[in-house]
Each structure stands twice: as structure tokens, then as C-alpha cells.
Amino acid sequence: MTAEEARRAFLDWLVQERRASPLTAEAYATDLADFLGFLTLHLGGEPDLTALATLRQADIRAWLARLVQDGAVNATRARHLSAVRSFFRYLARRHGVDNPAVRLVATPRTQRPAPRALPPADARMVAEDIGEMSDRAATQARDTALFTLLYGCGLRIAEALALDVRDVPLPDRDAMLRVTGKGSKQRIVPVLPVVREAIAAWLALHPDRRPDAPLFLGARGKRLDPAVAQRTLRAFRRLNGLPEHATPHALRHSFATHLLAGGADLRSIQDLLGHASLSTTQRYTAVDQAQLLEVWRKAHPRGA
Fold first, then answer.
1. CB neighbours (10 Å) of residue 122?
2. Phi then psi for 20, rounded to 5 degrees?
3. What does the alpha-carbon distance between residue 25 and residue 22 come to, in Å, rounded to a whole number?
4. Alpha helices for the chain (secondary structure H)
5. Backbone φ, ψ for residue 179 (5° rounding)
6. How far is CA 253 from CA 67, 85, 119, 233, 285, in A?
7. Are the CB atoms for 86 and 133 separated by under 8 Å?
8. Which residues pair with 214 in a beta bridge?
9. pLDDT by residue (tens digit) across 70-91?
């Protein structure tokens, strides 16, 4: 069997047995055709299963290097390599072609995109005005409290919606909130007066103030679904001309970015966000630098 025949059999298997979408099958077909085309030139002839079984890591790296020469970024090369690995897993199961070289080649590291924060005025608009999306006083108070909390404390939407009434800091105690984040790790977050006021206004209308009741309730009296909050913000941003990346999570990005711009140190922001690694928090420095560069371009006489 030639490698091309094996490729076609693999694509048929993807569609018929794995129920892959047409777009997925097309992407695999293109990536594998590129790989086999390279091998034909690299090996001096069309490869068969024996040639695939004896490929070395150096052969795989030579193919990845050629992708670099063609202008492929790391994310593209990682996708191509993933397709090739899937192809070889299929060959191992169906044709006994088990070549560890493909597994041993390191995946090109992809750079995570910089967090996309909102300008301070837009973030405040969301927190202060999103209640206007409803004509019910209770829903207005609930949504204002939720989005003020997201921006004011930098919580993930899941963390905010997991809070119970008992978790709300009392006015006569330290204004601190205990949050359970990823991996069930807890952290303490200070609560600004504006956040406490918004939550107090919502609690005054809360239909169930038992300590173990969810802090944020949906229309049916259950814990509010994240999709409802996301839908509310989606409608709000379209009515108010906000960018498409204005999402609940963008408020968390805005919280961190605006703290950094205000002089907060990375370690403190790391603790407030609940990041396990400082490198995750350091992504916000790229946002701050990009904003400074944009200000420079607009303000400096030679920036244009």
C-alpha cells in the first residue's frame, strides 16, 4: 500500500467511522497531502508504508522546517503535526505501522493571545448600566450586582455564580470575599464599596436569603445559568456599540489590566486572580505595553 492510498483510507475512516465534519476531513486531507508531498521530494520517491515506518525524527523536523520557510506560524505547524500524528495512530491500529519518531518530535509552542481588556469607560458602562436591559427591578439589581462584581473583583463568571448568600461580606466586617477557583483552590479578594452596595441592593430584593441559597438566581429560582449572563451582555454590547470581545471574561481581563496600569504589582494581581503561575499573569504586561505604544503613536509628533 502506498502512503497516498493509506491517506485516502484514513480520510474515509474519519468520515464514516469517526463521523468527522466535512471541514475537519478537508483540513486533514490538505495537511496530510502536504506532508506526503514533502516526503516524496525528501526521500526521492513516493513513500509506502515501509518508508513511513522507518521515518526518523530528523525527517519530521525537516518537514516542519520547510513549513517555517513557507511562512507557517507555530499554531499552523502544530495543527499539521497533529494531523500527521492522528494519521500514524490510525496506521498503527489498522496496518501495524508504529513509528515512535512522530510522537517524539516536540509540538511547536503556540503563543497564547494577549488578554483583550475593555477601556475603563466601557467596563464601567457595563457594570453601571447593564441593569437597563430588564424592566424588572429584581433583575436589574441582580445583573448590576453580578457585573459590578465581575469587574470590581476580577472573578470568573463561574466563580461568581457559584457564590451563596452566606459568602457575601457583611457591612460590619472586613470587606473580603472568599472565592473558590480552579482546582478548588480558595483565595481572598477585597470587595470595593461600590461592589458591596450593588450586592446589598440585590439582596434587598433577593427572594431567598437563606445562607445556603445561591447568591445569583435565575428566573426559575435556581442558580443563574452562565449562558443567561452571557446573553444579557451580548445584547447590551450590541445596543451600546461595544466591541465583540466585551464578554463576562473580558471584565476579568479589564480588572487585571486596569490594576496594572494603576501601578499594582504582578504578584498582587496574581493572588487576586488566583493564577497558579506568575507567567499567566505576565500576559497582562503585553496588554499594558500595547496600550502605551498606541498612546505614544497618537501623541508623539513623530509617531504617525
1. 19
2. -65, 145
3. 5
4. 3-16, 22-43, 49-53, 57-69, 74-95, 100-104, 120-129, 137-153, 157-161, 193-203, 226-239, 248-261, 266-273, 278-281, 283-299
5. -115, 135
6. 34, 35, 11, 15, 12
7. no
8. 164
9. 998 888 899 999 999 999 999 9
DSSP state of 133: G
pLDDT score at 285:
73
Mean pLDDT in residue range 224-245:
95
Which residues are marked as active site?
A: 156, 182, 249, 252, 275, 284
Q: Considering the entire predicted model, what is its pTM?
A: 0.62
Kindly give the interhelix angle for 137-153 and 248-261, rounded to the nearest 10 degrees: 40
CATH topology of domain 120-299: hpI Integrase; Chain A (1.10.443)
Phi and psi for 2 in degrees, rounded to 5?
-80, 160
Q: Can you read off the three cell numbers belonging to residue 255? A: 480588572
Is 186 in contact with 141 (CB distance < 8 Å)? Answer: no
Does the domain at 3-104 match CATH 1.10.150.130? Answer given as yes
Domain ranges of the chain: 3-104, 120-299
First to last CA, the chain: 60
User: What's the pLDDT at 143?
Assistant: 97
Per DSSP, what are the bridge partners of residue 190? Answer: 176
> Which residues neighbour 70 within 8 Å (Cβ) at sequence distance 6 or greater?
none
Q: What's the burial of 219, exposed, middle or buried (CB within 10 Å: 0-12/13-18/19+)? A: exposed
Is the separation of the CB atoms in 101 and 57 below 8 Å? Answer: yes
Is the CB of residue 254 less than 8 Å from the CB of residue 246?
A: no
Nearest to 79 by CA among 56, 52, 107, 104: 107
Element (H, E) at 179: strand 176-180
What angle do helix axes 248-261 and 283-299 make, rounded to 10 degrees?
Answer: 70
